[in-house]
């Protein structure tokens, strides 16, 4: 979580993408730290960073919804 403050946009996007690809739901604190860093560096995101980040966030949302259905 503390390391996320030093992440560049590619680090943020790759971390979120990797967690989603592995099917892992990040801890709330970790997700919050990554999202704050994404917000703080949003102007530096390239299209691939945006795509990977949005894909991961949609995966986490779908995972949350499927857990709510149980």
Polypeptide structure, described:
By secondary structure, the chain is mostly helical. It contains three helices and no strands. The chain has helices spanning 9-21, 28-40, 47-68. The mean pLDDT is 93.
Summarize the structure.
With 70 residues, the protein is an all-alpha fold.
What kind of oligomer do you see? single chain
Structural class: mainly alpha
| Beta-strand percentage range | under 5%
Q: Which percent range fits the helix content? A: 55-70%
Strand count, sense and closure of the main sheet?
A: none
Per DSSP E runs of 2 or more residues, the count of β-strands stands at 0
Radius of gyration: 12 Å
The 3D shape can be described as globular
What is the helix/strand order? HHH
Distance between the termini: 29 Å
Mean pLDDT: 93
Number of helices: 3
Which blocks of ≥5 consecutive residues have pLDDT under 50? none
Features of the shown structure:
3 helices, 0% strand, globular, single chain
Protein topology:
Elements: H1 9-21, H2 28-40, H3 47-68
Helix pairs in contact: 1-2, 1-3
């Amino acid at each position: 979580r503390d390391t996320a403050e030093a992440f560049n946009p590619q680090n943020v996007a790759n971390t979120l993408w990797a967690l989603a690809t592995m099917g892992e739901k990040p801890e709330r604190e970790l997700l919050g730290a990554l999202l704050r860093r994404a917000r703080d560096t949003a102007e530096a995101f390239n299209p691939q960073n945006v795509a990977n980040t949005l894909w991961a966030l949609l995966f986490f949302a779908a995972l949350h919804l499927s857990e709510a259905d149980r």
